[in-house]
Design brief:
Elements: E1 11-14, E2 22-25, H1 31-48, E3 74-76, E4 79-82
Length: about 80
């Protein structure tokens, strides 16, 4: 098993709807080789607000968000029943 996303691209960027949260994962077997540039680009994003070394737009975590983005948790009918984890 390798950490691979369905579209075979890593997920790198700001986590939508969670202030101050960032993610960098899903690099498949290339994670150890892409570690230095992943770390650099994520550090740039966190410190400067954007990555200068790598265009992260293809790796945006929001590509997996549904139309109900920002509506976390589960519902039973109209009642909130908590987080999914």
């Amino acid at each position: 098993m390798r950490p691979c996303m369905p579209d075979a691209l890593p997920v790198m960027g700001k986590v939508p709807g969670v202030e101050g949260a960032y993610i960098s994962c899903g690099h498949n077997c290339w994670g150890i080789l892409w570690g230095p540039v992943s770390g650099l680009s994520m550090a740039e994003l966190m410190m400067e607000g954007r990555s200068r070394s790598v265009d992260l737009s293809s790796f945006d975590p929001s590509r997996y968000m549904s139309q109900s983005a920002g509506k976390r948790g589960r519902k039973k009918g109209l009642s909130e029943v908590g987080e999914q984890w």
